[in-house]
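Researcher: Structure prediction, please.
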Amino acid sequence: MCVNLREKKYCILNKEYSKEEYKKILESYKLETYLGTEKAKKEFINFLFKQPRRFANIRNCTNSTGDALFNCKNTKNTFLARACEDLKFFWRGNEVKDSYDLNGGESLQCYESLTADHDYQTFFSIFSFKNQEVSYTENCHSSKHLFGCCAIKHGQYCILNKEYTKEEYFQLRDKLIKHMKTTGEWGEFFPASMSNFGYNETMAANYSPLSKEEAIQQGFKWWDKLQKTTGKETLKPGQIPDSIMDVSENILNEVLSCVKCGRNYKIVQNELIFYKKHFIPIPRQCFYCRNSERLKFENPFKLWYRKCMKDGCKNEFETSYSPDRLEIVYCEKCYQQEVY
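Model: Predicted structure follows.
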């Protein structure tokens, strides 16, 4: 439960102990029990808010803003990226250049696309792999010169999945683009109304939670009947042994219920083996709620202008820590002085 330490050992809450003291304190937490683990989590979260945070994790970058950036240049409003250049509004990927508003890897000159991977000039597309000069496509691979196509592999000069000659393709494509400009469709990504999913069953609900009313108001679908089972539990949360050491293999035959959402879930054999090996208590939440709790430790993919919170420092920066959060946020210089 330590933060910002370098070259230390036998520490708890940033305080160093002897090896014997460390083991004794660790044992007192009883981390093999659910109650002990929950107590430690609460202690650690409270401790986190008292420790300074670097405004962003940006290393070996030039003229770049965002978070989790490595070896980037001229990369703005970007998160979780490595070796990218001349990029803006990008999320999760490597070696992308001269692109805007997308995610993917090793692509060049792409715009408003989801998973543009090893692509060149891919516009307004979803799941595009090794394509060149394609627009408004979905799940197309290793193709070039596609417009409005779906599930095309090793194709070229296709519109709505129909192949044309090179001359026919460009003539019809330009005509369609001209029409789309008059309707306001050209230059926009696929509308949310075309999604096959409700907002509440996607990862978007974890990163940007919305109520049903807010989602519908913004044009998203909502699915009231999520695929989940409730009320079928054979073992209630209070009946699960507190310590993993007291859990028998009989739990593999039980149906559990999430203390947060009520969803039923089960423990599988390899999972139980892992928990026993590492002295981890049986989780009281389903997989989905556990994943949502983990994602809360990630900052949002959004930036705010702020000042360094170190007394006397006037440095300003863009950070994914919003001003209303409780963390202590330092500029790079003050953070380095504090930690090292």
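Model: The CA atoms of residues 16 and 176 lie 68 Å apart.
Researcher: Thanks, that helps.
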